[in-house]
């Protein structure tokens, strides 16, 4: 391994000069230079250890020896074009199939979640012979142009909404149209999709797909209300469209109780297309689309070959198989349930102590802590959230980030080896920071702060 040659300041100067400035760093005012990692820990150039609550990509832990060994062994043996016949791709597809509903039995391997979502869009449009797509407000599905077009989180800041893209309300029962006191929020939010489909039909347009993250992440770590997906699928299928579940953030057991996030919606629900990425390669570029025989046959029928040079190569599939082995052998789903439950319990106790905590939500190791200046009005507290993130990094060497329409939700998506002790430490440190804010009378939010997010969102008052 090459010795460290650049000082942190030198690295930063070179990055500012050579790397596009739209590629942002964590903690841009004072970046952390990470030189190695293991498990749920990051180490800087001085050997200081940071607890990583951010890296959901490194699903089974940074630099897991079993993953490194599998990649190295296969790289030493063979890594070649996926047009050559090889065992790894079919063995891996077979292992993935065992985790999914039976009808999702055809796989296309790619290199990233963005590639997977782009291909899912193509599959849906080819199968239905329609173009229009329904997405959730504040959704993010990837950085390709096709996906910017269906990601309100991005397109509202750029060229705007295309005529073939239709945005449904985010089913947020904390601050959305229908809240926790609604008798049936799942059906109520699903009916907004039904209304949207009717509006599309009035324009003489047809739906190709409903595209949604199984647990919206950029939207603020949202856990969707029960029955929402099933009812939406009913409406979408009746309109001739297909249901695409984006599992790039939440697949591979992050929820603990289920291997896939969409399974939280009940055994009776099954998407038509599932996309996956980030966690499946533990940092190696590996992603996939799973779909039905019927959709795959329609894609083949256009007589245009689909070819991906690196997707599903022998090394990638060896890594993927090793990730599945580690999830099972180390009971990481069980760990996600145990640690996630403890984390949520502790955060709820913190909520009872600190008025600024408006909501605690999540499942497994997918958790959000929403900060507000007024619980009754649910006024977002983005500056306080940013302050907490800054203090956790500087004082406690804990890496956390924010999300949500107002950037006021502290999000936790750590490696799946995150421990109960890690969870207890994080909550103690947040408690100290919030207590200091309260006792010192620190005023972080402007009284006249603008409550309009970076895009137009359905107003809670409209309900």
TrEMBL record:
GO MF: lyase activity; pyridoxal phosphate binding; transaminase activity
Alphabetized UniProt keyword annotations: Lyase, Pyridoxal phosphate
One term under GO cellular component: mitochondrion
Cofactor: pyridoxal 5'-phosphate
Matching PROSITE patterns: AA_TRANSFER_CLASS_3
Coiled coil region boundaries: none
Signal peptide: none
Family label: Belongs to the class-III pyridoxal-phosphate-dependent aminotransferase family.
Official protein name in the record: Transcript variant X1
Species whose genome carries this gene: Nothobranchius furzeri
Lineage, top ranks: Eukaryota, Metazoa, Chordata, Craniata, Vertebrata
Gene (name only): phykpl
């Amino acid at each position: 391994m090459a010795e460290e040659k650049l000082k942190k300041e030198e690295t930063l100067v070179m990055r500012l000069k050579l790397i596009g400035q739209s590629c942002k760093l964590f903690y841009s005012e004072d970046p952390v230079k990470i030189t190695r990692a293991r498990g749920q820990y990051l180490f800087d150039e001085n050997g200081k250890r940071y607890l990583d609550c951010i890296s959901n990509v490194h699903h089974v832990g940074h630099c897991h020896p079993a993953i490194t060994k599998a990649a190295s062994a296969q790289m030493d043996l063979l890594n070649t074009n996926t047009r050559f016949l090889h065992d790894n791709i079919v063995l891996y597809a077979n292992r993935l199939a065992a985790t999914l509903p039976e009808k999702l039995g055809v796989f296309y391997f790619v290199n990233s979640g963005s590639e997977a979502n782009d291909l899912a869009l193509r599959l849906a449009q080819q199968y239905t012979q329609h173009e229009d797509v329904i997405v959730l407000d504040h959704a993010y599905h990837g950085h390709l142009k096709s996906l910017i077009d269906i990601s309100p989180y991005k397109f509202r800041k750029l060229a705007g909404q295309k005529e073939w893209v239709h945005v449904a309300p985010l089913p947020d029962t904390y601050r959305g149209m229908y809240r926790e006191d609604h008798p049936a929020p799942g059906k109520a939010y699903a009916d907004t999709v039904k209304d949207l489909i009717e509006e599309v039909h009035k324009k003489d347009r047809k739906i190709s797909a409903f595209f949604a993250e199984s647990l919206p992440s950029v939207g603020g770590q949202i856990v969707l209300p029960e029955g929402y997906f099933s009812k939406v699928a009913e409406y979408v299928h009746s309109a001739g469209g297909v249901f695409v579940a984006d599992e790039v953030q939440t697949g591979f057991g992050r929820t603990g109780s289920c291997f896939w996030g969409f399974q939280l919606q009940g055994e009776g629900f099954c998407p038509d297309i599932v996309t996956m990425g980030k966690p499946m390669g533990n940092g190696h570029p590996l992603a996939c689309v799973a779909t039905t025989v019927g959709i795959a046959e329609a894609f083949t029928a256009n007589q245009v070959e689909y070819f991906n040079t690196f997707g599903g190569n022998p090394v990638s599939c060896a890594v993927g198989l090793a990730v599945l082995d580690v999830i099972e052998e180390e009971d990481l789903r069980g760990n996600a349930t145990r640690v996630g439950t403890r984390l949520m319990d502790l955060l709820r106790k913190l909520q009872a102590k600190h008025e600024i905590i408006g909501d605690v939500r999540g499942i497994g190791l997918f958790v959000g802590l929403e900060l507000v200046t007024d619980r009754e009005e649910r006024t977002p507290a983005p500056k306080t959230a940013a302050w907490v993130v800054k203090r956790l990094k500087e004082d406690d060497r804990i890496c956390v980030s924010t999300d949500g329409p107002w950037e006021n939700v502290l999000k936790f998506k750590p490696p799946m080896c995150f421990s109960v002790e890690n969870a207890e430490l994080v909550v103690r440190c947040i408690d100290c920071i919030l207590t200091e804010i309260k006792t010192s009378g620190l005023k972080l939010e402007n009284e006249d702060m603008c409550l309009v997010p970076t895009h137009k969102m359905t107003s809670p008052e409209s309900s």
